[in-house]
Amino acid sequence: MKRFFLFSFLAGFIMSLAVAWLYPLPQQKRFSSNIEVLTNGGRQEDFMIRWPQDRVSLPAAPERVSSVADGSVFVLADSRSAASAELFRLRDSAGNVVGLASRMAGHGSPGRRGASSSNWVLMIPSRGSLLMSQRDSADVGPVQKGGQWVLPAMTRGFWNAGTRYRITAGPAPGGRGRILRGTGEFSGLTGTYTETWELEKLTAKGRTDGRILLSTITEARP
User: Fold this and answer.
1) Which helix (H) or strand (E) holds 11?
2) How many domains, the chain?
3) pLDDT of 175
4) Can you tell me the distance from the alpha carbon of 112 to that of 191, in angstroms, rounded to the nearest whole number?
5) Is 199 left (phi over 0), alpha (psi -120 to 50) or beta?
6) Disulfide engineering: 48 pairs with which of 91, 123, 201, 219, CB 3.0-4.6 Å?
């Protein structure tokens, strides 16, 4: 499992660096940061990803690495575990594209709830980057169906129990994930975050549209 999780972290981080260099973000424009100063200390900043439009297609999968049908997620798996790496455009809470985000997950039993953990790298060229880590309450990583890898949250069945899932389940107090490190403007900060998936549209053909909400609370590292 360590090998798979290491792969997912390194693959996602390398992809983020590569695409941040190559991908044409809109003029590298810096928007005003939507930060709320909290009364009990720290600051809150929320980010958003819209699916499927914010997924960034990846290059051809390397040898022994699979991908979902549209090429947006890399998967490395055996019969007992799997790791996945995917890349998104990152938006601020106002919907402006401000950078890129990679999500890297390790799945002990792909598709089983409570059996995965994940890392996020948020890269905002004009500000810096954040590395975040969590345990997952629901596995939104690829699962194999009919010999192909598919994304559960992109299917009707995943949403049978509701239209909103909080994915983060620890390890920080309150079931929040941990912000491990930052660079640039985020250097010297620590904190927590939550990842929430919201379904906004389900078509007659079973296609889903929605958004991923990443809510961060940061403060100066002691």
Assistant:
1) helix 2-22
2) 1
3) 96
4) 28
5) beta
6) 91
